[in-house]
User: Which sequence fits this backbone?
């Protein structure tokens, strides 16, 4: 069975600071990895995904993530955060039945 | 167009009462369907998934059950609700061959009192 760990439960940054959210996964099959974002009062939205190829993937709104197979990690990064990035971020790994297993989430608060 | 409907949006139920949450999708066929629960401070937990009519896989043993009576209908049920069943329930789907992430429903906020 797959699992995902997000070690940062709450991150507080000032605008323009750089962001890195940690995600470690455990899965024995072909790895498909995702980052989702949930803005206050809104649905989950797909931020970016990794299936194969270039381990550095770029998503919407300036976010990117790097797949490091040797570390079982898929960390999310953004060079300069904005107040509007305040949201909860979820890392997920997809299993054989295409079910997503999510991490517990990281609440990001960006101070203006 | 492809859409997902989930209802009701909010529900307040007493402990011990039954539960039925319904999710239907439109504009697609033979989707994989999923029920998730988002409890406060606990992230998203996969409860059940279904790859076809009558096929249900349970991820977490608990007080809930799921059924898929039709291709595009997925139902989450309970015979007797517990306080711990409170949470935000999300239905999601993905079609065969889809390489992107899920499409999520708008969710049901369940409060067991």
Assistant:
């Amino acid at each position: 069975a797959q699992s995902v760990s997000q070690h940062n439960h709450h991150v507080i940054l000032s605008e323009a600071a750089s962001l890195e959210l940690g995600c470690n996964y455990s899965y024995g099959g072909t790895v498909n990895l995702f980052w989702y974002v949930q803005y206050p009062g809104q649905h989950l939205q797909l931020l970016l995904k990794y299936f194969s190829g270039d381990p550095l993937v770029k998503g919407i709104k300036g976010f990117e993530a790097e797949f490091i197979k040797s570390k079982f990690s898929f960390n999310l990064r953004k060079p300069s955060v904005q107040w509007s990035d305040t949201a909860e971020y979820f890392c997920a790994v997809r299993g054989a039945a295409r079910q997503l297993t999510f991490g517990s989430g990281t609440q990001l608060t960006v101070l203006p | 167009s492809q859409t997902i409907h989930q209802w009701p949006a909010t529900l307040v139920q007493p402990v011990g009462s039954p539960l039925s949450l319904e999710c239907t999708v439109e504009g697609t066929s033979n989707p994989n369907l999923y029920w998730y629960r988002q409890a406060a401070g606990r992230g998203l937990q996969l409860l059940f998934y279904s790859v076809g009519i009558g096929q249900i896989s349970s991820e977490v043993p608990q007080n809930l059950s799921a059924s898929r009576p039709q291709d595009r209908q997925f139902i989450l049920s309970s015979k007797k609700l517990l306080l711990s069943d409170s949470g935000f329930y999300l239905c999601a789907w993905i079609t065969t061959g889809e390489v992107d992430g899920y499409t999520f429903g708008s969710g049901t906020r369940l409060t067991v009192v």
User: Anything to note?
Assistant: Chain B touches chain A through 22 residues (CB under 8 Å). The CA atoms of residues 88 and 109 of chain B lie 5 Å apart. The radius of gyration of chain B is 13 Å. The mean pLDDT of chain B is 88.
